[in-house]
Structure formats: structure tokens, C-alpha cells
Amino acid sequence: VMVAGLMCSCQQQQNQQNSETQGATYDAYWNTGDSLSDMKRLHKWEAYVEEHPQDEIGWRNLYHAKSMSTFYNREQGYQQMMQELMKRVKEAIPDTYTYYLLAMETSYEYEKSKEYAEEALKRLPEKLYEGDYKIWCRYFLREDKDEKRLKDMLTRYYKSGTLSPDVLYFHYNEMQGMEQGGIYLGQAEDDLIPKKMIQLVLGMHKDKVLVNRNGDWYKIWRACKVPEPTENWAETTPMDDASVYWHTQNLKILAWIGEHSEHPVYYSASNLREWLREKLSKELLKNLYNEGLLL
Q1: Sheet of 183-186, strand order
Q2: What are the CA-CA distances from residue 64 to residues 35, 120, 175, 188 (Å)?
Q3: C-alpha span between 22 and 24 (Å, rounded)
Q4: pLDDT mean over 197-224
Q5: Pairing status of strand 265-267 against strand 209-212
Q6: Letter string b/e over residues 61-79, b meaning 16 or more CB atoms within 10 A of that residue's CB
Q7: How far is Cα 236 from Cα 238, in angstroms, rounded to an integer?
Q8: Which one, of 60, 147, 134, lies nearest residue 97 by Cα?
């Protein structure tokens, strides 16, 4: 009953926000794969910012149109293209939330990216788009000892109603099938956000350990309470093919945690589907079995 009540509350908030945000001009979209459509959208927002140079949403739409354009990604270097755009953004809307947010997303330097992020957070708008909540939750998840800000952002995210209650139900049910103290290895930060919301905002399943298996190795060992491997995997794994390299590394991580953890370790079946198509080690396969919605 408690869970149902909380989820219904989330649905009511979502419905209220949907009615409030009708007519919003934010144009978030995925790459269509159609160069002509992408170019039309790109020209549309180029013309818009030319007419409305102080409109932050216009620049944000142009940024995404440019970054997702198949035509531009083929014709010139992506990094150079986005850096040239950011010069224009800085000239038009300096010292704004949007400028620092886009600068953070464009930067390839960790310290610089973090600096932009903190400046953007100082200018955080009262209302955020759903994608922004995810951006900041990912950011706080990556940073050590930032649970207070993560909880505050997850609380805002939950109260905004932009996260589907069905998503929360699913992640709640995944954790419901875990033993006390169980370790959940997620594919990435996005896989942990709803579960962290359930823990920190709703106060449920707080005994479960949530780990991003694609994160820093040393954080993984600490979170899972397993010893650090003596072998230097970075040196012993061939780098000829990047996808093979990371696939091999991840398999080693799974095997190591499974062998040394004192607590049961869980994986989402959806996260392992690509790996299950490959030849996993017999030792790893024989220890995988269904436990509720998880493996």
C-alpha cells in the first residue's frame, strides 16, 4: 500500500506538470538517421538563434540539432564543430545556466568539465527538463561523497513527476527480489538513478548496494567489499579492438566480484543480453540463475 501510494503521488505530479508545460519549445530528440530531416532541423534553429540571440532554449536546441546531425558528423570533426558552436553560445548567452551546461557536455577535460558543472549548478533553474535531472544525477553519482546533493536532485526529480511511475515500479520490483545486503551491478548511471531514488527519496531497499560496473574500478572494489585484483588487466588485455577490450575487461570484473564477494551479486537481464550472445566463461554461466527479475 505504501509503495502504491507513493507511486500514485508521482503520477499525479506528472499529470500536473504535463498540463503546466504544454507548449514548451525545448526540442530534445534522437538522431533520426535521415540526413535531410536533420539538416532541416539544424537550419530551423540556426535561423531561430539568429533572430533571437538571447534565447537559451534556442541555443540549446541548436546545440542538440548540431550534435545529432548525421550530415555534420560525416563532413567534419565533431569536436571542432561543437567548439566553434560553443564560442557563439558564449558570445550570445555568457554566464548563463545553458552556457555552462553545454560547455560541460562539450568539454573533454575532466577538471574543466567539473568546473563548468559547478557554475551551471549555481544557476540551476527552478524547473528542469527530464534530461537535466538525469544529467545532474549522473554527475553526482560519479562524484564521491556527494550523496546529499544527489538526494536533493533525486527529490526534485521525483516531485517533478517527469519519471514514469512504471519505471519506478520496475526498479522497485528488481530490488524486491534481492537478498538483504545484495549487490546490484548496473550497466551505467542511468540504470542506477531510479533505484537510488527509491532508496534515498522513498526510503526503501536501503540495504541494497548499487554499483555502476562501468565506473572506476577502485570504486567498484570498495563498494562490493572485494580485494583489488593483483593482475594489471589494462596491461594484459590486447587493445587492438576497443569493443573487444571493454568486453573482456567487463567479463573479468564480473568474474572477480562473483568469486570474492561475501554477498550475492545481481545483474539486470536486459543489461546482460548483449553479453549472453557471446561466449561467457563456463564458470560465470554456471553461477547465473534467475532471482526474481534479476540474474
Answers
A1: 209-212, 183-186, 265-267
A2: 14, 18, 35, 22
A3: 6
A4: 86
A5: unpaired
A6: bbbbbbbbbbebbeeeeee
A7: 7
A8: 60
Q: Exposed, middle or buried, 289 (CB in 10 Å: 0-12/13-18/19+)?
A: exposed
Helix, coil or strand: residue 102? helix
243 pLDDT band (50/70/90 cuts)? Answer: low
Residue 247: Cβ within 10 Å count:
15
Spell out the long-range contacts of 214-223 with Cβ–Cβ below 8 A and sequence spacing 24 or more.
214/187, 214/188, 214/250, 215/142, 217/253, 219/144, 220/253, 220/257, 223/183
SS3 at position 215: coil
CB 120 within 8 Å of CB 101? yes
> Residue 199: its pLDDT value, please?
96
Q: How far apart are CA 100 and CA 107, in angstroms?
A: 10
Phi-psi region of 95 (alpha: psi -120 to 50; beta: other; left: phi over 0): left
Residue 162, Cβ neighbours under 10 Å: how many?
Answer: 21
pTM recorded for the entire structure: 0.80
- DSSP 3-state assignment of 216? coil
- Report residue 76's pLDDT band, with 50, 70 and 90 as the boundaries: low
Looking at residue 263, its amino acid is H
268 falls in which pLDDT band (50, 70, 90)?
A: confident
Residue 90: count of CB within 10 angstroms of its CB: 15
DSSP 10-56: HHHHHHHHHHHSTT---------S-HHHHHHHHHHHHHHHHH-TT-H
Q: Which helix (H) or strand (E) covers residue 210, if one does?
A: strand 209-212
Report the C-alpha gap between 208 and 169 in whole angstroms: 16
